[in-house]
Amino acid sequence: MAAPWKWCEAGSSFLNKLAQNGDGYCSSVHARNLIAVYDDLLLAWNQKDQDVLAVSVRNSAQNVAKDDFQVLVLTNPPPYEVDNVLTNRTHHLLLWGPRGVTVMLLPKATVLKEKAVCRSWPIGEHFFLCNKSVAVTDVAWHPDSETDSHILVLTSDNHLRLYNISEPQAPQLMLPVGVCHGLSSSIGASLGEDTAVSFDFGQQLECSKSRQVFILMGSGDVYLTHVSSTDENSTMYSGRVMGPLNMQPPSEDNYGVDGYSLLCLPSPVPVLVIATTAGTLYHCLALGMPQQQPFNQSRGEVDTVLFAFEKVKLDLTFTPGNEDDAFVCPVRLTRDPTCPLRYTCSHNSGLHAVALPVINHLHTFAQSEDNAGVPPLLRNEPCIVESLICTRATTSTLPTPLVGALVLPRVPGPVLIVFTASWKIVINFLVQGYQGYVPQLFSSVPSTVGASLQRPERSSFEQQVQQLLGGRTVPQLIQGTSGESSLQECLEILFAATHKFREEWLQRLDSCQVLIRRRMQTVNMQKDEQLEKEEKLRKEFEQIQANVASLREKYDAAYGTQQKIIKRAENVLHHLQQQVPQLSKAEQEMQKELEGLEERLKGMETSLEQARLKRDYQERHMESCGEEESVVQYINNAQIENIRKALSTEGKTISDLVQTITQLKQELSL
Q: Where in the cell is it found (predicted)?
């Protein structure tokens, strides 16, 4: 399989730098995680030089061919061996081991430089220096911290300590856990108190800002408490730790007595995964969780019960071994950020991936209105386990522990990056999602760099079948030792590979059969639905045709009625037009002449009226002068007589004209 980045190849400067740490981790049985991702950089802890190496994981074609790394130098490196690294959203890196915890501030720029100096400071330095017998067993960032600056530390003295990295010396909250959590650590140790080994966060309570914290003890017991990022020692009161939680149904081995790691998967009901040092996994449901006033109950009145619904035994070797060949193999649980129902199990014999389809059924059951009974899928569908990497071929082979494993979100699918103790990098491509009706595997066919840089297209049925039949069929076998295997071991490996090859190919064929059957059912359903739609459309078409014929008849009838009405209106207008009188040309000229005479008559009437007004004025003026006054006669009698005759003649003419006009109007019907 071609490496997606240049620094993944054997002999790269990045791996050569890490190889200077030697093979000191090969003999250790403890699970470590020395790699983390922030932004587009992969970080790896270099124990020899006490610094952090950073390489780019971008998908650009220019970045794939690069073989360079950046060295992040700490201002205050930890004086102890670091076993785990953990990043947060505010560019802080936690470096912790059994002897302490250190916080490192990462640079915000993602441009690779040769070297950069980063500020670092210890957490609880005075406490861990003064208490050599107290070891750190687990550390995690508090998910509800508003500033993302609170960490929760679990120590071997069975105490949970909440620190604010801005005030690193004194814990903000110190909470004892375990059976003897009401006693001091020295008294508890003298009584043989069990040691807390792991914890994880659960759901946040609706009535407060506190979040569930499940604590796993070395004996396999689980305790429950609630911690908020704002809690302080002054708010602590008795009865805060509840447990050990009762586990149902009862088991003879009490579900193991060698607990090592705990993981809580997000779900409507908290799903706990408990891993033992023998490679056994227990899947449990935390039922009966009190939602109101969770701290008012005593240890004897705890209602929370862990219902173990599944037990999984991991295959820690490539070839099947005898029960007498059991060995200690601590399992480290890590959730998959790309798939909420999948997690990985890393151990010194390799890495397994586990998926819980029951989580999807729990979400469906929580959202459904009819939740009277438990759905059958919650009881019948088992988890899916796949061995992705195997570093121990046989029980007699020395294992190669893993020093780091993470799932990197990437296009077109997530990538699993694994670092072994022999400083080799194993790349595994995972499937993007999970289909509950197909028992598919997690590994997928790797894509080329050019194809990965393109935008993924919608997968077709043929591509799904090719994905099921493609890829590898057995886990990648990583041999960490330089010694050669014997002929008997080689034969066992061959038989085991053949058996796994046959089983997984049969599983792939079964998966393809299920997929094809499901596809046929879907196609048949679509066919039936399309036939129903076709029949419905045919009936609608016939109905439309009948409506069209009826509308055509109505249209023809309406059109005929409209034509009749139009013809009647035309006849009426024709008769009206015939009744209008038609004047000849002579009559039209005479009409114009009469109109002119009428205008002249109006002018004469106006002049006559003015003359009458003047006469009246003259008469009034003459009367005002008096009869005694002598009036000079300016007009003689002859002139007066002529004027009288002229006025009489004009009056007769006007009277004749008026009579003529009146007669013509009567004749013309005007």
A: Nucleus, Nuclear pore complex
